[in-house]
Amino acid sequence: MKLGFVGLGAMGEAMATCLLRAGHELTVYNRTAAKADALVAAGAKRARTPAAATAGNELVFTMLFDDAAVQHASFGPDGIAEALGPDAVHVGCATVSFDQARRLRDGHAERGQHYASATVLGRPPAARAGQLFVVLAAADALRARILPALDAFGQKSFVVGDDPVQANLVKLCLNFMIFATIEQMAEVFTLGEKGGVAPATMFEVMSNSFYTAPVHRNYGKLMVEKAYDPPGGPMEIGLKDNGLFLEAGEDLRVPLPTASLLRDRFLQSYAAGEEGLDFVAIFERVRADAGLR
Fold first, then answer.
1. Which residues are tagged catalytic?
2. Mean pLDDT of 255-272
3. What is the value of pTM for the model shown?
């Protein structure tokens, strides 16, 4: 397939690499052009604007940091909407707010263009290995065109509805479950540590009995090893995504008390100067609350 990719951060670059490795014809764009160098050396074409990464392609993927970046790349000058063909599809993969998800859906619809959301679950190593889980929401007529490309970086794709906003809602919910699980394990590890049971011992029992899901094994391992730097999931991502989950709760009138606790946990980490670490480092704030160094 002829594909475009906009946004080459840690996740985007890994996903684009998988698409190229799968044999797709790929055009890439990143605001910092040097981040495209490795992909270009591997056979991708370099675009100077998001519009240039879109023109003539069947699908164009976006994987950008926040609402503002997505909005600008999609509808700003030389944006995707200026070059998206009548049969092409913009596939948004970023974690964005409810409002931004609607702006993408409605903005393309107003222009007579196709838009789908394919949010992803997993960290950069999983993306590079093609082992992400993908949450797709798109009109039925678009799915068959999108799913083959998703197979390049995803081990499994889940179709959750026709409205692209639904995929963004699922992504926010599952990200929150990651953060809540980290908080839960942090409290358990800390209680055990104060009672003389090392976190590594607690983790061994937990991950070899009935807490065997990847979220427990992978994030628990990072916590026990204190593998906070370099961050696979930066603290700012955790604060942002948890905030978007709270906004969705306000939008849908759903109280989310645990998410409010997690917001404060992330802010504690910022106050402690840990904003440059992986978000699993909120473990250290739980330990500090318990008087542990």
1. 171
2. 97
3. 0.92
Angle, CA 254 vertex, CA 249 and CA 260 arms, to 5° = 60
Place of tokens 């026990």: 224
Q: What is the mean pLDDT of residues 230-239?
A: 94
Tell me what pLDDT residue 220 has.
Answer: 96
What is the predicted pLDDT for the residue at 293? 84
Tokens of 263: 């917001």
Strands 2-6 and 45-46: unpaired
Distance CA 34, CA 282 (A): 32
Residue given tokens 């009109």 in the structure block: 139
CA distances from 138 to 82, 116, 135, 198 (A): 21, 5, 10, 47
N-term to C-term CA, the chain: 53
How many Å apart are CA 7 and CA 178, to the nearest integer? 24
Q: Assign 277 to helix, strand or coil.
A: coil
pLDDT tens digits, one per residue of 2-39: 999 999 999 999 999 999 999 999 999 999 999 999 99
Helical H runs in 82-163?
Answer: 98-110, 124-128, 140-150
Q: What is the pLDDT of residue 231?
A: 93
Q: Is the Cβ–Cβ distance between 202 and 188 less than 8 Å?
A: yes
Taking the C-alpha atoms of residue 164 and residue 154, their distance in angstroms, rounded to an integer, is 18
Q: Angle CA(97)–CA(79)–CA(27) in degrees, nearest 5?
A: 100
Three-state secondary-structure class, residue 46: strand
What is the three-state SS of 54-82?
HCCCCEEEECCCCHHHHHHHHHCCCCHHH
* CA atoms within a 13 Å half-sphere pointing along the CA-CB vector of 123: 17
What integer pLDDT is reported at residue 143 of this predicted model?
Answer: 96
241 and 65 in contact (C-beta within 8 Å)?
Answer: no
